[in-house]
Amino acid sequence: MKVNSMRQGYLLCIGKMLAALLMAGFAVYSCRQVPVSSLRTPKRDALNLAFIYNPAESAIHPEAGILHLNDSVSNLYVSIPQSELLFNQANPEGRFLTSLRFHYEVYELYEKEISRRLIDSGSYKTDLEKNRLHGLYYTVFPLRCRFGRQYTLRLFTYDNMRNKSIQTFLRIDKTDRNGRQYFMAFTPASRYPVLKPYIAAGRSIVLRYGPGGIDSVYVQWYRKSQPLPLPVFSSETPKNLLSRPDSIWKIALADTLVFDTTRTGLFHFRADTLSMDGFTLLCPGEYYPEIKTPAQMIPPLAYLTSGPEQKAIEENPNPKAAVDNFWLSCGENIQTARDLIRAYYNRVFFANYYFTADREGWKTDRGMIYVVYGPPRTMLKTDNQEEWTYFTEAGKKVVFTFRYKPSPLTENLYVLIRNLEPSPHWRQAVDSWRAGKVFATQ
Q1: What's the domain count of the chain?
Q2: What contacts 60, CB < 8 A, 6 or more positions away?
Q3: How confident is the model at residue 105 (pLDDT cuts 50, 70, 90)?
Q4: Residue 146 sits in a domain of what CATH number?
Q5: What percent of the chain has pLDDT above 70?
Q6: Distant-in-sequence, close-in-space partners of 44: CB < 8 Å, separation ≥ 6
């Protein structure tokens, strides 16, 4: 079987899949689609939040972000792609309309999650006309958040046309006036908020500092990407390749910053040179969070290969042939290889979408587990920890626990609590992929 014909087939397949996923506008925040009438508030320790990382659970995918304006008020930005909204003409005027309702709750955190208190809430309903939207709907809610405090926000977005509700959870940190949530990026022309922690090469932004009073910021550029996560059974200390920036320069807040393909990496914006806190955007390159080129398809294979095998694939002068040969060796025929590719890079895409931090999402601890195992079957979540549970074919429970790691470069980094002994179920998962079977737990 010729490699070229196989390559054309599976790249067409994966390209269509990823394009469809992006058109759906999946968000990095937690979403679930449930009937409005069945919405309840379960006890925190009993609430299974696995739907957060399962894209099949949602029909619309709101994005959310915080911009602190002063010591007592913060703005909550919520956006939804127009393509996800359902419009109909069931109204006297015959106009294409949709209807949304939002409800938010803000809880102040005390004593390391021992207790929390509802300090603000509100609701808002809107009817939207299709021809008045321009690709994206967004709205802004003022929140009562005091300086020096941390909060958890719970947002309900009600899709009245489908009679469904989506939940969003968001961490609010107002303890440092140089922190990430004192900044927000906007598109230059439309001034739409950029609510993801990443941006694709070729895009541009303007940056805003919520309280005002400053006219310029320092940009720290980190060219190197963070290394792969350590194995699940490792006791080593992970390396940090972002200790020193490769370049520093100053820009005016009024300037438009263009992310081009000649300078990709991590961009950290700081208002105060004495503080490491600031606003960060990751720009890994073109297409991100998609995986489109053979060169982009090679690095995630490290979870399925040995060190020497991965090195040989990376050093192959023909990346396309290297990728083709690897998946054909797993699948033994073109159709099985296509199925493996579709499933594997689908997971890589969503790992990038959900878990991007100071590195690509697939290179985080959560991304590593997500790519190999898939979405968790159950997840228990507190403000600083996530516990993912899977079940083997024999019914054995496999649990991964991730703890939030504060960082001036990201607010989305969770670190796996590793075991010191080799994990048999990890080996079984990898062997399943290598034997031509997509690994999925019960």
Answers
A1: 1
A2: 31, 33, 80, 84, 85, 157, 159, 164, 166
A3: very high
A4: 2.60.40.10
A5: 88
A6: 382
